[in-house]
Design goal:
Blueprint lengths: L1 H34 L43 H11 L12 H4 L44 H10 L8 H9 L2 H10 L9 H12 L8 H6 L8 H11 L5 H4 L10 E3 L10 H4 L7 E3 L21 H10 L26 H12 L27 H9 L13 E4 L5 H6 L6 E4 L3 E2 L3 E3 L4 E5 L9 E3 L6 E5 L4 E9 L4 E6 L2 E11 L4 E6 L2 E11 L4 E6 L2 E6 L2 E3 L3 E6 L2 E6 L2 E3 L3 E6 L13 E3 L2 E3 L20 E6 L5 E3 L2 E3 L4 E6 L18 E3 L2 E3 L7 H5 L5 E5 L7 E2 L6 E2 L10 H18 L1
Length: 751
């Protein structure tokens, strides 16, 4: 009996050990995998986000405060230092042969350039002379950005053998021999050595150059609320500049009118540009984006000076004319992603150039000294045709007659724009039924533009006939646009930028180019009962906005039905997207001012039969999207997707992917984190997946997830998915982290 009992006890111990190994090893593996780093990105604080309307009041958020100048703590500016720098700037003593001053190449009369295609030193150089207005805000100097301070930048022209070629010791001696300079240096650098130092020369020049500002342009006054500061043509040009019609604003955003970065235009492909500084092949042909402030004064243009006029610059961007990179004007893969062809009518071209003239301000331009301490000749003031053209364009517009707000009527056969031009805040513009072949631009805040239905049930139609870029362009806060049909525009049906309190409702938008309705950089946006079709990007689009509602709308026959891009706090519900390439798209894309997309809620939507062949042009970002997708989440965080019906989408019902694989330069956290899908219904998805998905080694399914982040949860019942097992809420977080680590190991191992 004791022996038998002892045997049973022994067998139990063996069983227990076996069970421990069977259960314990996987558990230990899970714990080890879960302990590995998940590389979660920190959440950007809300206060640090550049999303939504930048300011209330003024002209719809156009007035954005200028940033702080890039200061050098070793060289604080003083009036004495600036004045010394001004005299040195115009003094040819700074060159070895006393023939060249800084102002020889940076003449104030020419926008602080020399008016030549290529800079002229002792020999002809290889690049155009950059303008100096606004260099106080520059993080990188020269076309290739090789200098990071103005003090450092000045060393090159001063000492380069092909430019001023001065020897520091020689210059110190010459300046010390001039009593007036001895006084000026002592005043500018009190308490320092009584002998003049070459470093002090660079410090004084830098202090002077930081004073070269152009911050009181007609545009600045308009942005501050003076509606008369721009002409009607310039207001139309501003709308073109800021919209997807041209994309100018992507690289030249206000208030500096430069993004401070480097972009590839394929102009003069023999110059490596930024790549010679970074050593990165992807930067080959990339050059600094110049400010457009005082651009009218600094012709010719581009880093190689190859374009003589602003009109020629527009032609280059629109058609590729002037992009000399080989047999094709726009070789694939050589251009920055914001560069794509566009079309401008002759009137639009004039409007856009006139707006660029509105960026002119010489009110703070320093005086050219009548003489300098060396008594050498000072550069002469030169005629500048750009100044004459800017003065002719900057006539402003008239102030509307003072009155109380009222309802204004647009009769069929008359001009909507004429009535809108006379509006004041609080007005209602009622448009009678009929067809209006025009584009409308408004900056009036607290304005309602409303179509009126006639007895036969017809409402007004704005028909661009393919001749206009945008149907309605607006910047004013608290704007309502409702009960209209817009069709046959080249770029946008309704475009609203930088405004707060936007309502777009009861609109039918058809064949309007890139976007149907397009609020961007806005806050408090309501889109309801909008139908959009025939658009080669997004029928209903909201970008870089905050507090958004898109509801009770329909999008069909577009590349993207509904898109929420780089936005915060969006609710998208009770909509139907069908017959598009992608039904609903929630995304975070790189290289935009807004670096976050989060807090979107998608619910009670129908996304079905989105199997239309993608008809975006190759230059558009939307061209990369596969066909047959119900909902696509790309890089967006904190997205909740519930109670939606996703059916008959040939590639996938719901896809969740990282942004990173699709772009070269990613300046965002590309992983979609903390997504939650629940309560959705799926049927007949994934029957014929797009070739892009197949080439990725995936297959059609109800849900596709790239496992780029461990935190998404999928609580839906699906017929097919990749991976076959999807992490759910019922999984402990430790298990979801371990599973994600295992998936990434398998995916990376199998390539």
């Amino acid at each position: 009996m004791n022996a038998q009992a002892s045997g049973v006890q022994l067998k139990l111990k063996v069983w227990q050990k076996t069970a421990l190994w069977i259960v314990g090893l996987p558990l230990l593996l899970v714990l080890l995998l879960a302990a590995l780093p998940t590389h979660d990105e920190p959440v950007i604080p809300d206060a640090d986000l550049k999303v939504g309307a930048p300011a209330r009041g003024a002209a719809g958020g156009l007035q954005v405060p200028m940033p702080q100048p890039v200061a050098n703590s070793a060289n604080p500016s003083t009036p004495q230092k600036v004045e010394l720098g001004r005299l040195l700037f115009f003094d040819a003593t700074l060159s070895t042969n006393n023939q060249l001053a800084c102002a020889s190449c940076h003449n104030p009369a020419l926008g602080f350039t020399d008016g030549q295609p290529l800079a002229q030193g002792s020999v002809t150089l290889t690049r155009n002379t950059p303008a100096l207005y606004g260099v106080a805000y520059s993080q990188n100097l020269f076309w290739d950005g090789r200098a990071t301070t103005l003090e450092e930048q000045s060393l090159t022209p001063l000492t380069n053998h092909a430019e001023m070629a001065v020897q520091p010791a020689q210059l110190e001696a010459e300046l010390a021999a001039m009593p007036r300079y001895a006084e000026l240096f002592a005043a500018a650098f009190p308490g320092q050595s009584t002998s003049i130092k070459f470093e002090q020369v660079t410090y004084a020049l830098a202090a002077f150059e930081r004073s070269l500002l152009a911050n009181n342009t007609p545009f600045d006054r308009y942005a501050a609320g003076d509606s008369t500061a721009l002409s009607a043509s310039q207001k139309r040009g501003l709308a073109l500049f800021r919209s997807g019609a041209t994309g100018c604003y992507n690289c030249h955003p206000g208030p500096l009118f430069t993004n401070g970065g480097f972009e590839r235009l394929s102009v003069n492909s023999t110059d490596n540009g930024r790549a010679d500084v970074t050593g990165n092949a992807a930067d080959r042909g990339a050059f600094k984006v110049p400010t457009l402030r005082n651009i009218a004064l600094s012709a010719p243009y581009m880093h190689d000076g190859s374009l003589p006029t602003l009109e020629a610059v527009l032609d280059m961007y629109a058609t590729g004319k002037g992009m000399r990179a080989g047999p094709e004007a726009r070789p694939a893969g050589t251009l920055s992603r914001f560069i794509r062809p566009f079309e401008l009518s002759s009137v639009e071209r004039t409007d856009l150039v006139n707006f660029l003239y509105a960026l002119t301000d010489e009110s703070s331009t320093p005086l050219v000294p009548a003489s300098v301490p060396s008594r050498l000749p000072v550069v002469a003031a030169l005629a500048n045709s750009g100044r004459v053209a800017a003065a002719a364009a900057n006539t402003g517009s008239s102030q509307p007659t003072a009155r109380t707000a009222t309802t204004l009527r647009v009769k069929s056969g008359t001009s909507i724009q004429t009535v809108v031009d006379g509006t004041i805040p609080g007005d209602i513009v009622e448009i009678e039924a009929g067809t209006y072949n025009e584009a409308v631009v408004t900056d009036t805040p607290n304005l309602t533009v409303r179509g009126v239905v006639d007895a036969a049930g017809n409402r007004p139609v704005l028909d661009g006939q393919g001749q206009h870029a945008n149907g309605i362009s607006a910047t004013g806060n608290n704007l309502v646009i409702e009960n209209l049909t817009l069709r046959n525009y080249r770029n946008n049906g309704v475009f609203v930028d930088g405004a707060t309190g936007i309502v777009l409702r009861d609109l039918f938008v058809e064949a309007t180019g890139v976007y149907g309705v397009y609020p961007v950089h806005c806050s408090d946006v309501l889109i309801e009962r909008v139908t959009a079709t025939g658009v080669n990007d997004a029928g209903i689009y909201v970008g870089q906005c905050r507090k958004i509602v898109v509801r009770n709308s329909v999008a069909y026959g577009n590349v993207i039905g509904i898109e929420v891009e780089n936005s915060i706090d969006a609710e998208v519900y009770n909509n139907e997207a069908y017959g598009n390439s992608v039904g609903i798209f929630i995304d975070l894309l790189p290289n935009l001012p807004s670096k976050a997309s989060r807090g979107t809620r998608l619910y009670n939507n129908i996304s079905r039969d989105n199997n239309l062949a993608n008809f975006s042009t190759p230059e558009m970002t939307s061209a990369m999207l596969p066909n047959g997708v119900g909902i696509l989440v790309l890089g967006a965080d904190d997205v909740e997707i519930y109670n939606n019906k996703l059916t008959n989408n040939n590639t996938v019902g719901l896809a969740v992917f990282s942004t990173a694989p699709f772009f070269e330069n990613v300046d965002i956290d590309p992983k979609p984190e903390r997504l939650h899908a629940h309560g959705n219904t799926y049927a007949a998805n994934g029957s014929a997946p797009d070739k892009l998905v197949v080439e990725l080694g995936l297959y059609g399914a109800d849900v596709l997830w790239d496992a780029s982040s461990w935190s998404p949860r999928f609580d839906d019942s699906v017929a097919g998915a990749f991976p076959p097992a999807l992490p759910a809420t019922r999984w402990p977080a430790v298990l979801r982290r371990a599973y994600w680590q295992l998936l990434n190991f398998v995916i990376n191992t199998l390539g």
